[in-house]
Automatic annotation (TrEMBL):
Residues 171-312 form the Amidohydrolase-related domain. GO terms for molecular function: hydrolase activity. Pfam families: Amidohydro_2. It comes from Marinomonas posidonica (strain CECT 7376 / NCIMB 14433 / IVIA-Po-181). This is Amidohydrolase 2.
Length: 364
Protein backbone atom coordinates (compact mmCIF):
# COMPACT_ATOMS: atom_id res chain seq x y z
CA UNK A 1 0.00 0.00 0.00
CA UNK A 2 1.31 3.48 -0.86
CA UNK A 3 2.09 5.75 2.08
CA UNK A 4 -0.21 8.72 2.63
CA UNK A 5 1.79 12.02 2.69
CA UNK A 6 0.35 12.88 6.11
CA UNK A 7 1.57 9.60 7.54
CA UNK A 8 5.03 10.09 6.02
CA UNK A 9 5.31 13.48 7.72
CA UNK A 10 4.26 12.09 11.08
CA UNK A 11 6.53 9.07 10.77
CA UNK A 12 9.55 11.24 9.93
CA UNK A 13 8.71 13.54 12.84
CA UNK A 14 8.64 10.58 15.20
CA UNK A 15 11.96 9.19 13.94
CA UNK A 16 13.86 12.46 13.80
CA UNK A 17 12.68 14.43 16.83
CA UNK A 18 10.77 11.97 18.97
CA UNK A 19 7.38 13.64 18.83
CA UNK A 20 5.19 10.54 19.24
CA UNK A 21 2.04 11.38 21.20
CA UNK A 22 3.09 15.02 21.43
CA UNK A 23 -0.11 17.10 21.12
CA UNK A 24 1.90 19.77 19.31
CA UNK A 25 3.02 17.36 16.58
CA UNK A 26 1.43 17.94 13.17
CA UNK A 27 -2.32 17.76 13.53
CA UNK A 28 -4.90 16.85 10.93
CA UNK A 29 -6.79 19.54 9.08
CA UNK A 30 -10.53 20.05 9.32
CA UNK A 31 -11.02 18.76 5.78
CA UNK A 32 -9.25 15.52 6.67
CA UNK A 33 -12.29 14.49 8.73
CA UNK A 34 -14.13 13.34 5.67
CA UNK A 35 -14.85 9.83 4.52
CA UNK A 36 -11.78 8.07 3.17
CA UNK A 37 -9.16 9.81 5.32
CA UNK A 38 -6.02 7.86 6.18
CA UNK A 39 -6.12 5.77 9.33
CA UNK A 40 -5.03 7.25 12.63
CA UNK A 41 -1.71 5.99 13.96
CA UNK A 42 -1.93 6.14 17.74
CA UNK A 43 1.80 5.53 18.10
CA UNK A 44 2.74 8.74 16.29
CA UNK A 45 -0.32 11.01 16.34
CA UNK A 46 -1.60 12.94 19.39
CA UNK A 47 -3.69 11.31 22.10
CA UNK A 48 -5.45 14.61 22.76
CA UNK A 49 -8.96 15.00 21.34
CA UNK A 50 -9.92 16.54 18.01
CA UNK A 51 -13.09 17.83 19.71
CA UNK A 52 -13.35 20.26 22.61
CA UNK A 53 -17.03 20.03 23.47
CA UNK A 54 -16.68 22.17 26.61
CA UNK A 55 -14.75 25.37 25.91
CA UNK A 56 -15.60 28.74 27.46
CA UNK A 57 -14.74 31.51 25.01
CA UNK A 58 -15.90 34.07 27.58
CA UNK A 59 -15.06 34.47 31.30
CA UNK A 60 -17.14 35.44 34.32
CA UNK A 61 -16.18 39.11 34.19
CA UNK A 62 -16.36 39.62 30.43
CA UNK A 63 -12.71 40.64 29.99
CA UNK A 64 -11.52 37.89 27.71
CA UNK A 65 -8.84 36.61 25.42
CA UNK A 66 -9.99 37.54 21.94
CA UNK A 67 -12.12 35.14 19.94
CA UNK A 68 -9.42 34.93 17.28
CA UNK A 69 -6.74 34.14 19.84
CA UNK A 70 -8.72 31.26 21.33
CA UNK A 71 -9.09 29.89 17.81
CA UNK A 72 -5.33 30.21 17.36
CA UNK A 73 -4.91 28.12 20.51
CA UNK A 74 -6.97 25.37 18.87
CA UNK A 75 -4.91 25.51 15.70
CA UNK A 76 -1.76 24.80 17.73
CA UNK A 77 -3.29 21.59 19.09
CA UNK A 78 -5.19 18.59 17.77
CA UNK A 79 -8.58 20.33 18.19
CA UNK A 80 -10.52 21.10 15.01
CA UNK A 81 -14.08 21.02 16.40
CA UNK A 82 -15.29 23.00 19.42
CA UNK A 83 -18.37 24.22 21.21
CA UNK A 84 -18.36 27.97 21.74
CA UNK A 85 -19.65 28.32 25.29
CA UNK A 86 -19.97 31.64 27.00
CA UNK A 87 -20.44 31.56 30.70
CA UNK A 88 -24.05 32.30 31.42
CA UNK A 89 -23.55 33.27 35.04
CA UNK A 90 -21.55 36.50 35.16
CA UNK A 91 -20.28 38.92 37.75
CA UNK A 92 -21.89 42.39 37.75
CA UNK A 93 -20.64 44.60 34.92
CA UNK A 94 -19.43 47.22 37.39
CA UNK A 95 -17.65 44.73 39.66
CA UNK A 96 -13.88 44.79 40.12
CA UNK A 97 -13.93 41.07 40.95
CA UNK A 98 -12.59 38.65 38.33
CA UNK A 99 -12.71 35.41 40.35
CA UNK A 100 -16.01 34.85 42.12
CA UNK A 101 -14.38 32.39 44.54
CA UNK A 102 -12.41 35.30 46.00
CA UNK A 103 -15.49 37.52 46.23
CA UNK A 104 -18.06 35.83 48.48
CA UNK A 105 -21.29 37.76 48.51
CA UNK A 106 -20.81 39.17 45.02
CA UNK A 107 -23.63 37.78 42.88
CA UNK A 108 -22.93 35.58 39.87
CA UNK A 109 -26.14 35.92 37.90
CA UNK A 110 -27.56 34.41 34.69
CA UNK A 111 -27.28 36.77 31.73
CA UNK A 112 -27.26 36.88 27.92
CA UNK A 113 -24.17 39.12 27.73
CA UNK A 114 -21.57 36.52 26.85
CA UNK A 115 -23.78 34.73 24.32
CA UNK A 116 -24.33 37.89 22.31
CA UNK A 117 -20.60 38.65 22.25
CA UNK A 118 -19.88 35.11 21.02
CA UNK A 119 -22.53 35.38 18.33
CA UNK A 120 -21.18 38.73 17.10
CA UNK A 121 -17.66 37.28 17.01
CA UNK A 122 -18.87 34.26 15.06
CA UNK A 123 -20.47 36.52 12.47
CA UNK A 124 -17.36 38.64 12.08
CA UNK A 125 -14.59 36.10 12.55
CA UNK A 126 -15.96 32.65 11.73
CA UNK A 127 -12.90 30.50 10.89
CA UNK A 128 -12.81 28.34 7.78
CA UNK A 129 -10.34 25.85 9.20
CA UNK A 130 -12.24 25.09 12.42
CA UNK A 131 -15.79 23.83 12.96
CA UNK A 132 -17.47 25.77 15.79
CA UNK A 133 -20.87 25.23 17.38
CA UNK A 134 -22.41 28.23 19.13
CA UNK A 135 -24.14 27.48 22.43
CA UNK A 136 -26.73 29.32 24.54
CA UNK A 137 -25.53 29.66 28.13
CA UNK A 138 -27.95 32.24 29.56
CA UNK A 139 -30.55 29.90 31.05
CA UNK A 140 -31.48 30.25 34.71
CA UNK A 141 -32.67 26.74 35.54
CA UNK A 142 -34.08 27.88 38.90
CA UNK A 143 -36.17 30.58 37.21
CA UNK A 144 -36.94 29.13 33.76
CA UNK A 145 -40.03 31.14 32.87
CA UNK A 146 -38.29 33.47 30.38
CA UNK A 147 -36.09 30.85 28.71
CA UNK A 148 -38.33 30.11 25.74
CA UNK A 149 -38.83 33.80 24.95
CA UNK A 150 -35.08 34.46 25.09
CA UNK A 151 -34.46 31.48 22.81
CA UNK A 152 -36.88 33.07 20.33
CA UNK A 153 -34.97 36.36 20.60
CA UNK A 154 -31.68 34.56 19.88
CA UNK A 155 -33.21 32.95 16.83
CA UNK A 156 -34.55 36.29 15.60
CA UNK A 157 -31.23 38.09 16.03
CA UNK A 158 -28.96 35.21 14.97
CA UNK A 159 -31.04 32.77 12.92
CA UNK A 160 -29.75 29.19 12.79
CA UNK A 161 -26.51 30.10 14.57
CA UNK A 162 -27.10 28.62 18.03
CA UNK A 163 -27.24 24.80 18.01
CA UNK A 164 -26.59 23.82 21.63
CA UNK A 165 -27.56 24.89 25.15
CA UNK A 166 -25.14 24.96 28.06
CA UNK A 167 -23.18 24.76 30.16
CA UNK A 168 -26.11 25.64 32.45
CA UNK A 169 -26.22 25.07 36.20
CA UNK A 170 -28.68 22.76 37.90
CA UNK A 171 -26.70 22.82 41.14
CA UNK A 172 -23.18 24.26 41.45
CA UNK A 173 -21.96 24.37 45.03
CA UNK A 174 -18.93 26.48 44.14
CA UNK A 175 -21.29 29.42 43.58
CA UNK A 176 -23.37 29.04 46.72
CA UNK A 177 -21.47 31.95 48.29
CA UNK A 178 -22.29 34.06 45.23
CA UNK A 179 -26.06 33.73 45.48
CA UNK A 180 -26.41 30.80 43.10
CA UNK A 181 -29.88 29.33 43.42
CA UNK A 182 -30.06 25.60 42.67
CA UNK A 183 -33.09 24.40 40.76
CA UNK A 184 -35.72 22.61 42.84
CA UNK A 185 -37.87 19.67 41.76
CA UNK A 186 -40.69 22.15 41.13
CA UNK A 187 -38.39 24.31 38.98
CA UNK A 188 -37.38 21.27 36.94
CA UNK A 189 -40.98 20.51 36.12
CA UNK A 190 -41.28 24.05 34.74
CA UNK A 191 -38.60 23.40 32.13
CA UNK A 192 -41.13 21.61 29.93
CA UNK A 193 -41.61 24.33 27.31
CA UNK A 194 -37.96 25.07 26.59
CA UNK A 195 -36.96 21.40 26.81
CA UNK A 196 -39.66 20.66 24.25
CA UNK A 197 -38.23 23.36 22.00
CA UNK A 198 -34.72 21.94 22.38
CA UNK A 199 -36.05 18.50 21.49
CA UNK A 200 -37.85 19.91 18.44
CA UNK A 201 -34.66 21.62 17.25
CA UNK A 202 -32.58 18.54 18.15
CA UNK A 203 -30.20 20.64 20.26
CA UNK A 204 -28.20 19.00 23.06
CA UNK A 205 -28.08 20.58 26.52
CA UNK A 206 -25.04 20.38 28.81
CA UNK A 207 -25.96 20.52 32.50
CA UNK A 208 -23.62 21.14 35.41
CA UNK A 209 -25.07 19.18 38.32
CA UNK A 210 -22.88 18.25 41.28
CA UNK A 211 -23.32 14.71 42.55
CA UNK A 212 -22.83 15.90 46.11
CA UNK A 213 -19.97 16.75 48.43
CA UNK A 214 -17.48 15.05 50.74
CA UNK A 215 -20.03 14.96 53.57
CA UNK A 216 -22.95 13.77 51.45
CA UNK A 217 -21.57 12.30 48.18
CA UNK A 218 -24.94 11.67 46.49
CA UNK A 219 -26.91 14.58 47.92
CA UNK A 220 -27.96 16.04 44.57
CA UNK A 221 -28.25 12.87 42.48
CA UNK A 222 -32.08 12.89 42.73
CA UNK A 223 -32.20 16.24 40.89
CA UNK A 224 -30.41 14.83 37.87
CA UNK A 225 -32.50 11.67 38.02
CA UNK A 226 -35.63 13.81 37.90
CA UNK A 227 -34.37 15.73 34.87
CA UNK A 228 -33.60 12.52 33.00
CA UNK A 229 -36.95 10.95 33.90
CA UNK A 230 -39.03 14.01 32.96
CA UNK A 231 -37.20 14.71 29.69
CA UNK A 232 -36.21 11.31 28.27
CA UNK A 233 -36.16 12.49 24.65
CA UNK A 234 -33.73 15.36 25.17
CA UNK A 235 -30.04 14.95 24.42
CA UNK A 236 -28.57 15.67 27.85
CA UNK A 237 -24.85 15.87 28.56
CA UNK A 238 -23.80 15.67 32.22
CA UNK A 239 -20.82 17.99 32.60
CA UNK A 240 -17.67 16.81 34.41
CA UNK A 241 -19.19 13.36 35.03
CA UNK A 242 -20.96 15.05 37.95
CA UNK A 243 -17.79 15.93 39.85
CA UNK A 244 -16.62 19.14 41.54
CA UNK A 245 -14.03 20.37 44.05
CA UNK A 246 -16.65 19.83 46.74
CA UNK A 247 -16.48 16.07 46.11
CA UNK A 248 -12.94 14.75 45.92
CA UNK A 249 -13.05 11.58 48.02
CA UNK A 250 -15.70 9.38 46.38
CA UNK A 251 -14.56 5.83 45.69
CA UNK A 252 -14.11 5.15 41.98
CA UNK A 253 -16.33 2.07 42.20
CA UNK A 254 -19.16 4.13 43.70
CA UNK A 255 -18.81 6.89 41.10
CA UNK A 256 -18.75 4.41 38.23
CA UNK A 257 -21.73 2.48 39.61
CA UNK A 258 -23.87 5.64 39.77
CA UNK A 259 -22.98 6.70 36.24
CA UNK A 260 -23.38 3.20 34.81
CA UNK A 261 -26.86 2.83 36.31
CA UNK A 262 -27.96 6.18 34.90
CA UNK A 263 -26.51 5.51 31.46
CA UNK A 264 -28.23 2.12 31.38
CA UNK A 265 -31.57 3.64 32.37
CA UNK A 266 -31.50 6.79 30.22
CA UNK A 267 -30.57 6.20 26.60
CA UNK A 268 -30.12 9.89 25.68
CA UNK A 269 -27.73 10.70 28.51
CA UNK A 270 -24.10 11.41 27.70
CA UNK A 271 -21.18 12.46 29.90
CA UNK A 272 -18.47 14.99 29.26
CA UNK A 273 -14.98 14.49 30.64
CA UNK A 274 -14.13 18.18 30.90
CA UNK A 275 -12.31 19.75 33.86
CA UNK A 276 -8.99 18.47 35.13
CA UNK A 277 -10.53 17.64 38.50
CA UNK A 278 -11.45 14.26 37.01
CA UNK A 279 -7.85 13.34 36.26
CA UNK A 280 -6.34 15.03 39.31
CA UNK A 281 -8.65 13.46 41.90
CA UNK A 282 -10.02 10.35 40.21
CA UNK A 283 -8.48 8.94 37.02
CA UNK A 284 -4.88 9.29 38.18
CA UNK A 285 -5.33 7.97 41.72
CA UNK A 286 -3.64 4.68 42.45
CA UNK A 287 -5.80 1.76 41.38
CA UNK A 288 -8.39 3.94 39.63
CA UNK A 289 -7.09 4.22 36.07
CA UNK A 290 -7.92 0.68 34.99
CA UNK A 291 -11.45 1.03 36.42
CA UNK A 292 -12.17 4.21 34.51
CA UNK A 293 -10.61 2.88 31.32
CA UNK A 294 -12.90 -0.17 31.52
CA UNK A 295 -15.86 2.16 32.09
CA UNK A 296 -14.93 4.32 29.10
CA UNK A 297 -14.45 1.26 26.92
CA UNK A 298 -17.86 -0.11 27.93
CA UNK A 299 -19.73 3.17 27.43
CA UNK A 300 -17.57 4.60 24.68
CA UNK A 301 -20.59 5.79 22.64
CA UNK A 302 -21.80 7.93 25.53
CA UNK A 303 -18.80 10.16 26.28
CA UNK A 304 -17.63 13.53 24.92
CA UNK A 305 -14.20 15.09 25.54
CA UNK A 306 -13.71 18.67 26.71
CA UNK A 307 -11.14 20.90 28.38
CA UNK A 308 -13.29 23.34 30.43
CA UNK A 309 -10.74 26.03 29.57
CA UNK A 310 -11.97 29.55 30.35
CA UNK A 311 -10.70 32.44 28.23
CA UNK A 312 -9.76 34.75 31.10
CA UNK A 313 -7.70 37.64 29.75
CA UNK A 314 -4.51 36.47 31.51
CA UNK A 315 -4.62 32.85 30.36
CA UNK A 316 -2.04 31.83 27.79
CA UNK A 317 -1.69 29.03 25.26
CA UNK A 318 0.35 27.04 27.76
CA UNK A 319 -2.71 26.91 30.04
CA UNK A 320 -4.98 25.63 27.28
CA UNK A 321 -2.38 23.10 26.15
CA UNK A 322 -2.04 21.74 29.68
CA UNK A 323 -5.81 21.52 30.22
CA UNK A 324 -6.21 19.66 26.93
CA UNK A 325 -3.41 17.23 27.81
CA UNK A 326 -4.59 16.60 31.36
CA UNK A 327 -8.23 16.03 30.43
CA UNK A 328 -7.11 13.81 27.54
CA UNK A 329 -4.47 11.83 29.43
CA UNK A 330 -6.76 8.82 29.84
CA UNK A 331 -7.25 8.56 26.06
CA UNK A 332 -3.88 6.83 25.76
CA UNK A 333 -5.18 3.74 27.52
CA UNK A 334 -8.54 3.32 25.77
CA UNK A 335 -9.38 0.61 23.28
CA UNK A 336 -9.16 1.61 19.63
CA UNK A 337 -12.95 1.70 19.38
CA UNK A 338 -13.31 3.94 22.44
CA UNK A 339 -10.47 6.17 21.25
CA UNK A 340 -12.17 6.65 17.89
CA UNK A 341 -15.57 7.35 19.44
CA UNK A 342 -14.30 9.79 22.06
CA UNK A 343 -10.95 11.35 21.16
CA UNK A 344 -11.40 11.24 17.38
CA UNK A 345 -14.87 12.75 17.59
CA UNK A 346 -17.22 10.12 16.23
CA UNK A 347 -19.66 10.57 19.13
CA UNK A 348 -19.72 14.33 18.60
CA UNK A 349 -20.26 14.01 14.86
CA UNK A 350 -23.14 11.58 15.33
CA UNK A 351 -24.74 13.61 18.14
CA UNK A 352 -24.90 16.69 15.91
CA UNK A 353 -25.43 14.76 12.67
CA UNK A 354 -22.41 16.44 11.11
CA UNK A 355 -21.00 15.45 7.75
CA UNK A 356 -17.68 14.47 9.27
CA UNK A 357 -16.31 11.09 10.22
CA UNK A 358 -13.59 10.00 12.60
CA UNK A 359 -10.72 8.16 10.90
CA UNK A 360 -10.34 4.49 11.62
CA UNK A 361 -7.48 3.57 13.92
CA UNK A 362 -4.59 1.92 12.08
CA UNK A 363 -4.17 -1.77 12.82
CA UNK A 364 -1.06 -2.73 14.76
Amino acid sequence: MACHPFMVTIALCSLLIGCANDPESEARSLTSFKSGASCYDRTTEPYTAVVDSHLHYRPFDGRAISFQQVNDFLRQTSVRFANVYGIGQMLPANSTCSNYLKCPGTPVSPTTRNDFVNAANMLEHAPEDLHLILSMTFTDLANPESTLAIMALYEKEYPDMFRWMGEVNLVKQAQFNNRHEPATPQDIRQWADFMSELEKRDYPITIHSDLGNNRAPTLYVPLMEQVLSLYPNNKIIWAHMGMSYELTNMKADHHIAILSAMLDKHSNLMLDTSWRILNDYYFSKRGNQAKYVAFFDQYSKRILPGSDFVAFRNNRFSVYKEELEVTGHIHQFLSDEAFRNIALGQNYFELLKLEYVAPEVCSS
